[in-house]
Amino acid sequence: MIIDVKGLYHSYTNDDNYAVKDVNFSVKKGEIFGFLGPSGAGKSTTQKILTGLLPLQKGKASIDGNNVKKSPNRLFNTIGVSFERANVYKKLTGIENLEFYSKMFNVKTLNPLKLLRMVGLENAANKRAEGYSKGMLQRLVFVRSMINDPKIWFLDEPTSGLDPTTASKIKEIIKDKQRKGTTIFLTTHNMHIAEELCDNIALINEGEINLIDSPRNLKLKYGEKLIKAEYKINGELRKERFSMINKEEIDKLNEIIKKGKVETLHSQEATLEEIFIKVTGRGLK
Amino acid sequence: MLRVISIFKRDFKSSIRDNMLLYMMIVPLLLALGLKLFIPSANNLTVKFAIDKSLDKEVIETFEKYGEVELYDNKDKIIQRVNKMDDIAGITLNENGLLQAVIEGNEQKETPGMAKMIIKNINRNDKGDLNFIISNIGYKMSPVASIGSASLIIVSIMLGGMIIGFNIIEEKENNTLNALTVSPMNRKEFICGKSIIGIIIPIIQSLLMLWILDLFHVNIFMILVLIVSSSLIAIVLGFLIGVLSNNQIAGIANMKGLMLLVSASILGAVLLDSSKHFLLYWSPLYWSFMGLHGAILEIITWSKVGINVLGTLITTNIIFLVAKKKIRKGLS
Ligand SMILES: Nc1ncnc2c1ncn2[C@@H]1O[C@H](COP(=O)(O)OP(=O)(O)OP(=O)(O)O)[C@@H](O)[C@H]1O
Ligand SMILES: [Mg+2]
């Protein structure tokens, strides 16, 4: 296991008020592991403990066999970290930010201009970051995190706040990295991202992981099959969803079909959000 | 090492792009130009001696140390010269073969005073080490010039520290410190890299200021030793301000408080009677100022510079030990 976490707790106030509680999970080499949960769930807190930005208070966590409590500095040559809040030098241009950061590594780093081009920032390469929009800053932090071509890559909300085109560019880059063998830990409150990218997802709420599984298994186990029907009753068009595991609802749908009033029928899968609500009792927003 | 230099280069680049920091880098030079306007030209201040050519070479050389020497053939010519408009003291031998000063009587008191003092010393011990006397006179330069120049160097050293502080505030405000923490860079490299600017800037500024103030004849090496040792306290205080201030505004407020302490140390050194100087021994800047002032007046020996450097280092170290915990905590 390339990332191994056991019984992790963290309190910002050093009391019983835990931001993460008894978190356990492990990530296999080469997989994309997602933390899916609403705001304040403890996603960033977990990532910060793993990357050493927060102290390990209680529990065990190791990365590539190194205890995060005393991981050697050189370990970071193989780790990439992207932040949810863009943190760059505002007086430096995009390319200067990348060039400076690349000097911090002992390993071969990727070409800054190429990286900027990958996320469509080539025209802003020589513009100071203080003039970047929020989305541009986020892309800059994203490519900065891959400058050392990391073996293990931590991404905190990599696509939040980006337009769909840019977001899908980012998703492609992430998938491409995985194909080349990078292990990726990402946090998100977006079920589509989680579903599209992750091999395994941890559903986290109020600091606790409720469930870990692959998106497919989650759906098989927890997603009830639904049928969405449009039918006419008393000349009035109605839309309704029927659960295929609820006897009453199946009977009701049968009734409607028998009467021949159905206009359209669609089978529908439960979304991850619906599963999330079912498991944790709350939504992702 | 490469990382240390990269950090320094980044700080420098970022600082010259920040209006306030750029201003802090230029202001000592502007002050030096201003000071230059206030200082009467060097010639007006030099004490002049009209000396009998036939006097001992050593005697003439001694007078040359303290002022401008003009040589004349005999006593009459000397008297003629002394009677001219400007201030000059004639030096000849009296009937008993002893040195005497010939004065007109309307000179400013420095000229005859200086002449008498030098004669007294030559008479007392033939090969006199005059350091003691000189250090109490310092006639060669006006106090405005010597105190002003030494103070400007201290200001430039302190501003170097403040630039470090503001760069740390920037790292904190933008959270860029986190990005460095998750890189292979270690804390030592960070601290060294950030510190360089606090040494380099005062050195460059001071050299430029000495040049502006026509002071390149002083012992530059001595001045550099004093600057480097004094910059350590500025670096410590710069880091302290950096970790204590959450934004530029708070940084400026803290900097003002600090400058008050700096001014107190300099004013104390200038205004207090030397018997009360022990009241300032706690301040590294007092030691720096005394050293720099002496070096600019060229009245200080290396051993005295050593004492001043030692004073600076010991007091800096004490302050560092007190501040260390705060700095370490603030950077993590
Ligand atoms: N620096 C901090 N000091 C005190 N409490 C904090 C701090 N950072 C986070 N918290 C608290 O810890 C809990 C978890 O926060 P965290 O940032 O890990 O959530 P998250 O899942 O990343 O949320 P988001 O989707 O908004 O990024 C929240 O209740 C939050 O208020
Ligand atoms: Mg977060």
Structural notes for this entry:
The complex is a heterodimer of chains A (about 280) and B (about 325). Chain A is an alpha/beta fold. Chain A folds into 2 domains: about 5-215, 3-Layer(aba) Sandwich (Rossmann fold), CATH 3.40.50.300; about 225-270, no CATH class. Chain A has 9 helices and 13 strands. Chain A has helices spanning about 45-50, 95-100, 110-120, 135-145, 165-180, 190-195, 215-220, 245-260, 270-280, and strands spanning about 5-10, 20-25, 30-35, 60-65, 65, 80, 150-155, 185-190, 200-205, 210-215, 225-235, 235-245, 260-270. In chain A, the strands form 3 sheets. A 6-stranded mixed sheet of chain A has the order 6-7-8-3-9-10, sandwiched between helices. In chain A, strands 2-1-4-5 form a 4-stranded antiparallel sheet, with helices on one face. In chain A, strand 7 (about 150-155), helix 5 and strand 8 (about 185-190) form a beta-alpha-beta unit. In chain A, helix 3 (about 110-120) packs across helix 4 and helix 7 (about 215-220) crosses helix 9 (about 270-280). Chain A is globular, with a radius of gyration of 22 Å. The mean pLDDT of chain A is about 90. Chain B is an alpha/beta fold and about 325 residues long. Chain B folds into 2 domains: about 1-40 and about 140-330, no CATH class; about 45-135. Helix content of chain B is about 70%, strand content about 5%. Chain B contains 14 helices and 4 strands. Chain B has helices at about 1-15, 20-40, 40-45, 55-65, 75-80, 110-125, 130-135, 145-175, 175-180, 185-210, 220-245, 250-270, 285-295, 300-330; strands at about 45-50, 65-70, 90-95, 100. Chain B has a 4-stranded mixed sheet, with helices on both faces. In chain B, strand 3 (about 90-95) and strand 4 form a beta hairpin. The longest helix of chain B has about 30 residues, at about 145-175. Residues about 125-140 of chain B have low confidence and may be disordered. The chains are: A alpha/beta (about 280), B alpha/beta (about 325). The interface of A and B includes residues 52, 75, 100 and 104 of A. Adenosine-5'-triphosphate binds near residues 43 and 189 of chain A. Adenosine-5'-triphosphate (ATP) binds next to helix 1 of chain A.
